[in-house]
């Protein structure tokens, strides 16, 4: 993450951190990297603001403007949950539904 920030252009470069880091994880850089105009941003859960944006997304779904089923790539029983995690780590699934 630090390398990505340091590669950004001075004055207007942005580095975007996507996802959630493990509990207790820290990121470090020299303050100079930020005072020269570089920006660190982050996004978790797609950047959706639950209270203000999620109701609109639900309305779109209810109107049939997009199909959630298009995002489900696998359906597995609870007994195969480890396989589901393996598919996720390999980048072979978008979303897996686990039935229990």
Structure description:
This is S-(Hydroxymethyl)glutathione dehydrogenase. The chain has helices at 2-7, 31-35, 50-62, 81-89; strands at residues 14-18, 39-43, 74-77, 96-99. By secondary structure, it is an alpha/beta fold. It folds into 2 domains: 2-46, no CATH class; 48-99, no CATH class. The chain has 4 helices and 4 strands. The strands form 2 sheets. It has a two-stranded parallel sheet with strand order 1-2. A two-stranded parallel sheet has the order 3-4.
Secondary-structure element order, as H and E? HEHEHEHE
* Number of helices, counting only DSSP H or I runs of 4 residues or more: 4
Taking the sheet with the most strands, its summary is: 2 strands, parallel
Distance between the termini: 38 Å
The shape, in one word, is extended
The rounded Rg comes to: 19 Å
How many domains? 2
Low-confidence stretches: none
Strand order of the largest sheet: 1-2
Number of DSSP-assigned strands: 4
Structural class: alpha/beta
> Average pLDDT, to the nearest integer?
90
Strand content: 15-25%
> Percent range for helical residues?
25-40%
GO molecular function: S-(hydroxymethyl)glutathione dehydrogenase [NAD(P)+] activity; zinc ion binding
InterPro entries: GroES-like_sf (IPR011032), NAD(P)-bd_dom_sf (IPR036291)
Protein name: S-(Hydroxymethyl)glutathione dehydrogenase
Enzyme class: oxidoreductase
């Amino acid at each position: 993450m630090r390398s990505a920030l340091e590669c950004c252009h001075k004055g207007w470069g942005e580095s975007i951190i996507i996802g959630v880091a493990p509990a207790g994880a820290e990121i470090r850089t020299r303050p100079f990297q930020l005072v020269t105009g570089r920006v660190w941003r982050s996004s978790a859960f797609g950047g959706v603001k639950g209270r203000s944006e999620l109701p609109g997304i639900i309305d779109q779904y209810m109107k049939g403007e997009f199909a959630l089923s298009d995002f489900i790539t696998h359906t597995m029983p609870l007994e195969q949950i480890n396989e589901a995690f393996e598919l996720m780590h390999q980048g072979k699934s978008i979303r897996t539904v686990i039935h229990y």
